[in-house]
Write a structure and sequence with these properties.
The protein is built from 20 helices and 22 strands. The protein has 621 residues and is α+β, with helices and mostly antiparallel strands. The protein folds into three domains: 307 residues, 3-Layer(aba) Sandwich (Beta-lactamase); 139 residues, Transcription Regulator spoIIAA, CATH 3.30.750; 141 residues, Jelly Rolls (Sandwich), CATH 2.60.120.10. Helix 15 links the parallel strand 12 and strand 13. Helix 19 crosses helix 20. The relative contact order is 0.09.
Length: 621
């Protein structure tokens, strides 16, 4: 028996959000003891009632699994839509429809539901229709026909499948009702040869051994238009998939088909071996394995799980939603895109080396299950130590997506990481949901920011702290150590100090206001200041944050235009203010000083331009 711990095939040590949901479902239903293992085929009676596995496979090739997902069992009637698809491709729709109808019966799987007068089976999901479909698969012999079936099933599963010989022999030796159906089909010329051949193919196709993992890949292949999402091999044409899913919707669950569509709302097929396969076109495939069956021949736990999955993740195919195929608009790390906090050269060097440890994921559109599943997988698979999820472009978050995002926070938190979340507008309900479900110590697993810039700065600070870099806003330097004085001799620095005015500002004090006369520029030697502008919306936008060793107001050197932004002290701040008049006079008194200062200003401007170009390139990918 396989582990009861949920697994995913992503290779990440952090469990993905959907695995947590599967674990909860498995724990909830594993003690459900209703139903009975099929015993009309003796070999099937040997199955253990406690076997229970759940798999979800996406059209992106991710597989999530919990429980006995590698326990072999026989595919049984789940083979019927797959063989029907082969018959359609080999004979064409008209020839197949002449032999097999597509009307639901409301009867059991082994009912003898033949069209009056023609003897045509009412659909390919009942045994009569499945035997007829097996006879229509192309091949020079019955052995060829079965080989074609087995080979195609293996493409669906993404690995080589085989037959369970003991189950085949048991089915063959006890299949008297099916033999009677076969002879009736021969009587009406639905089967054009002696029925023993098609019956043997049918017994073998039902005896193909699969497991829950393989079955989920089969479902995902159907969801992916007939192409296996992992191997890229095509099992069936996309047009044929439409026909297959249509009959699965109306007939796949026999006399439970109407209730299934009502409660679950996905094309599906069950088998008396305990398997259920369900398909959500374009998104995912579901497989559940549990041998105890209800009176209709459907897995009891399988039906219960599919109902809950459909409700929890809002998977019903008739549910209308503005679905974005991919919820991730952009993804990049902070070695390429930084906050508005201007860093020292030493800090920039550290962030260039360590920036890949923090990664931003910008989501957009209406968040529903499929988009968030893919986005959450990308967050986890990135292995970022500081993941940042930006929701500012998200227009709506449904309940299923909210649960997935909560599970993402929990999965990351339990692995020693926290999620930095940038909230969007109109998301107060979603944030309340997160806060209500993150109690006590779990609250530290989520950090919420109103703007991406704040999250970027927090991530940068954490990376710098991890490397032992001192906080630049706490640093205090001499004028000689300022980056604009790089290359100046001691007497030149002393000359500047005599010209400049030494200023001190308290935290929160306004230093410059937009519209003020630009009559000086400032060399920051202690503390931290922020440059901000007011947006038309009334919000204040940070342009940059500067610390010791940096300069602000330097555009006054180039023109006499009024100040274009506000500058406020974020902490107790010291700087040297050099008037534009005194700076220009240096051209006559100390041109050596003026030349060095201008060269340093030009170098800083060049570095800023290079950083912005790098950010634009990263965001444009």
């Amino acid at each position: 028996m396989t582990s009861q711990r949920a697994r995913s095939t992503t290779g990440s040590p952090v469990p993905l959000p959907i695995t947590r949901s599967l674990e909860r479902l498995h724990a909830r239903f594993r003690d459900l003891d209703e139903g009975a293992v099929a015993d009309y085929i003796p070999e099937l009676a040997k199955a253990k009632p406690e076997w229970f596995g759940i798999c979800v496979a996406t059209t992106d090739g991710r597989v999530y699994e919990v429980g006995d997902t590698r326990q072999p069992f026989t595919i049984q009637s789940i083979s019927k839509p797959l063989v029907y698809g082969l018959a359609l491709e080999d004979r064409g729709r008209d020839q197949v429809l002449a032999k097999i109808g597509v009307e639901p019966t409301g009867d059991a799987f082994n009912s003898i539901s033949l069209e009056p007068g023609t003897g045509r089976p009412l659909n390919p999901m009942i045994n009569a229709g499945a035997i007829a479909a097996a006879s229509l698969v192309a091949g020079r012999s019955d052995e060829d026909r079965f080989h074609r079936i087995l080979s195609t099933f293996s493409i669906y599963a993404g690995r080589q499948l085989g037959i369970d010989q003991a189950v085949y022999e048991s089915e063959r030796d006890t299949g008297h009702r099916n033999r009677a159906i076969g002879h009736m089909l021969r009587n009406f010329d639905i089967v054009g040869t002696h029925p023993d051949g098609p019956l043997d193919v049918y017994f073998k196709q039902c005896s193909i051994a699969v497991d829950c993992h393989a079955l989920s890949m089969m479902a995902a292949t159907l969801a992916n238009g007939g192409v296996n999402p992992v191997t890229g091999e095509r099992a069936v044409k996309s047009d044929t998939v439409t026909d297959m899913l249509s009959v699965m919707t109306t007939c796949g669950m026999y006399d439970y088909a109407g209730s299934w569509v009502y409660w679950v709302g996905m094309p599906a097929k069950s088998g008396v071996g305990g398997g259920i396969l369900a398909v959500l076109p374009g998104q995912l495939g579901i497989a559940v394995f549990s041998p105890p069956l209800d009176e209709r021949g459907n897995s009891v736990r399988g039906v219960a799980v599919c109902k809950e999955l459909s409700r929890d993740f809002q998977l019903h195919f008739l549910r209308t939603a503005r679905v974005s195929r991919s919820a991730v608009r952009a993804a990049y790390d902070i070695s390429a895109v930084r906050s508005k906090r201007v860093r020292t050269e030493a800090e920039r060097r550290v962030l260039s080396e360590e920036g890949r440890r923090a990664r931003v994921f910008e989501l957009h559109g209406d968040l529903v299950f499929a988009g968030v599943e893919s986005a959450a997988a990308q967050v986890v698979e990135s292995c970022a130590e500081l993941p940042i999820v930006d929701l500012t472009r998200v227009t709506a978050i449904d309940d299923a997506a909210a649960r997935m995002l909560l599970d993402l926070v929990l999965a990351l938190g339990e692995s020693g990481k926290s999620l930095l979340l940038v909230q969007g507008r109109e998301q107060s309900r979603f944030l309340r949901y997160l806060q209500e479900n993150l109690v006590d110590d779990r609250r530290r697993w989520l950090q919420v920011f109103e703007e991406l810039d704040g999250a970027l700065e927090r991530a940068e600070d954490q990376l710098l702290a991890a490397r032992g870099a001192p906080a630049s806003d706490a640093a205090s330097i001499s004028l000689a150590d300022h980056e604009l004085c790089r290359g100046l001799a001691a007497d030149a620095v002393a000359h500047l100090a005599r010209l400049a005015k030494h200023c001190r500002f308290a935290a929160g004090e306004m230093i410059l206001r937009k519209g003020d006369r630009a009559d000086a520029f400032y060399l920051l030697v202690a503390g931290k200041v922020s440059v901000t502008i007011d947006l038309p919306s009334g919000r204040r936008q940070r342009v940059s944050t500067l610390s010791a060793g940096m300069t602000f107001g330097e555009l006054a050197i180039l023109n006499d235009a009024p100040r274009s932004a506000d500058v406020r002290a974020d902490s107790s701040t010291e700087c040297f203010a050099l008037s534009i008049e005194d700076f220009r006079a240096l051209g006559g008194t100390r041109p050596d000083i003026k030349l060095v200062v201008l060269e340093n200003l030009l170098r800083n401007a060049s570095q800023t331009a290079a950083r912005l170009t790098q950010e634009i390139a990263a965001l444009a990918r």
